[in-house]
Specification:
The chain is α/β, with parallel strands linked by helices. It is built from 37 helices and 26 strands. InterPro entries: ATP-dep_Helicase_C, DEAD/DEAH_box_helicase_dom, DinG, DnaQ, Helic_SF1/SF2_ATP-bd_DinG/Rad3, Helicase_ATP-bd, P-loop_NTPase, Ribonucl_H.
Amino acid sequence: MAKIFAKDIFAVVDLETTGTQRENGHHIIQFGCAIIKNLKVVKTYSFMINPHREIPQSVVNLTGISNGDVQKQKDFDFYAPKIVKILQNTVFVAHNVDFDLPFLNYELTQHGYDALTNKAIDTVELAKIAFPTLPSYKLSDLTAQLEIKHLNPHKADSDAYGTAILLIKIIKQLETLPQATLNTLSSLAHGLIRDTSWVITTIADSLRQEKRPLPAEYMQIRNIILQKQNERFDSHGENGTFPQNDNDKRKLFKGKLHFRRAQVDLINHLHQFINNPEKNAMLVEAPNGTGKTFSYIFAYAYQLYSGRKLVIATPTKVLQEQVMEREIPQLLNVTKLDLKAEVVKSSSRYLDLDGFVQTIFQGTPNKSTLILQMQILVWLTKTKTGDLDELNLTNYNAPLFAQIQHPGDARVGSRFAEVDFWNLARRKQEEADILVTNHAYLANHYMDTIWGQNPYLVIDEAHRFADNVISSRNDSMRFESLWGVLSHLRNLLYYSNDSVESQFNDNVQINFLLTKLDPMILELINLINELQKQLYAQHDNAINKVNLPNGTLELSFQGKGLFNQDSRFKQILPKFQQKLEEVRELTNQTLFELYHEQERMLANVEALVGDITEQIDRLDYYSEKGYQLADLLSDQKNLAQDGFILMITNPEDPLSTNLDWLMLDASDVLNQIYSRFDHIAFVSATLTSDHNFDYAISQLALGKMNLVKYIGKSTFNMKKHLEAFAVINMPNPDSEDYQKDIAQIMVNDLADKNHVLVLMTNLDKIHDVFTEILNAPELKDFEILAQGMSGSNNRIAKRFVIAKKAIIIGADSFWEGIDFHDCGIDTVFAARLPFESPDQPEVRLRQKKLEDQGANVFEKDSLPRAIIRFRQGMGRLIRGEHDHGQFVILDPRIWTKNYGDAFLQSIPVKVEKVTLKELKKKLRNK
């Protein structure tokens, strides 16, 4: 359909510059341009330009353009008339047009030329809209994902050509959209950057003339186009009988799955356990790469024809997807069993169609919200599930999500009731034989009827289950935030220019309510302040005090130390709850009266009503937290099992006190969960410490269960896949030289590597190493990512997988919580042995509880936790029999401390002692 833009010439421009601040002496060093006619690239230009200044090393690393490359080139004054002529009568296109066009215009005007006034469009925004489920919109990632060939990323000529092909693909993709979707996109597009909307409106207007019928795979409700939802499940085959002997399994696996002795032994042990009525739980440790996920699904699958379900709980979304998209399809292919599997997750992960459609008519949103709305409109023409995770977003903090996440109700009678994504998901879950969920969801919804009668349960990555159950139950009361909500509410009701009082002063009922409400709000604020003062007064009873970098004082308490029998806080709390409920109810009545003033509901009043509604929702939230806290404090047993943290944002001000609470002993909750399920398998690559399950049994509260224990063997020779080195001449880990030595290893020894993980235990030290290596020319081909500095952990993980060469410097969840299934890791550095910091409140509180019980905290808690985390870090390397890698321990304590042997024994291959000089050769495979 090139005819739509037959008369338009696109000039796709990319600039390389010495920096981003044009007013501060930064200049263009390369101009690249690709000309598009009839949606084909017909010509390209590339000019190297002398900036008459030094090119920073970071720019050299990124672009490959050195000072020598531009030293003898003409300067911008020479190229300016050529550039003006090239761009004359064209549509200016760039990937981030608000950088390239203003920068180019600044250079032109500085040299006496008029600024360009061309129509200007942005391919970043267009790509997000046209391809809403891609994980990244960096140009290099887009060209890789869309299979656009361009040879020299970050060179202006190559990037201009890549962007030109991207634009053509975007236009062709938009042209395939249903007309109603294009019409809605066109109505929203005016808020896009510069003239970007012109592309969408031109396509929509042109195709509207053709009166295209809606393709058969779609349906239309109002102005929303959806994929038709097929609720019928495809049958995979018939019921089967478990293959008892090796020959039967060999026949079943033939041509589909390699027969591996260790995997078959694991399957057989699981099968025996499931069919043993005397046993109700099994602990399984199986090394990475042994096919343990397939094994447990296979063993349980043949038991699912009596109407019982198998529930699989994993810690992460990545593992859920792996089970659903890789392991279960493989099982069905091998066995031909007629089984159905579904993911179970929170309703908030699904799009609420009613809420989404309302947002489209709510006026002009901010830019990020607008683009997200347009992305969702396009995504709705593709998705059959409405699962927001398909959008590959790294966070759900945008204001839009509060309105479009499904609340989990039945949606009976709504316009979209028949196609409601959450209700569809529930229907599918009810019919499924296998349900895949996550640890946190299971912990909070174990009584849900969706699991069926007497279901089986597998807890994958079980070494993390107790901690995930605990963290899912932790909560807080942010008194300062509640105070802010109430202040904002008073402003809306009484003091803003468009307040309720000023606009409805002639309404008797509203004025009556407002007269009652204000003193109530003030009384509630006084109660909040009194609660804060009572907490602050317990300052000296804290078992741990930490001053955080942001100035907040963090005080940790055992329950009995913060709330004694005569606690004044416990006496005030019911009054606070009652007053909060009264304020919420009276505000609701005021809102109800405002709805009756329909004829006066002008635009500014509608916005006011929306804002008040939002404050009521927040009051509901804090009311719920108040009841949770009251329940907690009403039970002395709870107080003994829970810890409390005061977060005082200004240590000198009692009224800046906030309260967090956390579970220290999950035994009761874990046993409640276990009682709901049958024949539970706890599976992990790291369930043992010192070759026994004692720590796992304690952590998982399995002491009273009738257990089966099994340690599996690897399906391949680990010595051929893993090399382990420990450096003997590193300085003390607490010295400045230590961070510098780590940085030097990164800079000098990684030339032959592609994906490197540097595991640390301190975020400040991560910053030091990151700063040290960021602009090193030796690492110019690597994308360097650091926790706390390169975006969210999810974003870092995505960038790492996409990049051809990358280094992550991380702590915490990078040891074990984030998976990299889609890219091999060459080398893992353990910068320090991963002991938890005793300054972390949850660590100090947990350990104090153990101390009070007379336990040896180091032996019973610190060391086994560190060893399991250490093994998990090493496990980042070898995820399967095709992986090879090097594990490097930089912490010299592994040789000098008594506990070092425990870490060494946890490594499945012999650890080689090396000096820093010898390590360089090992890393370079010399």
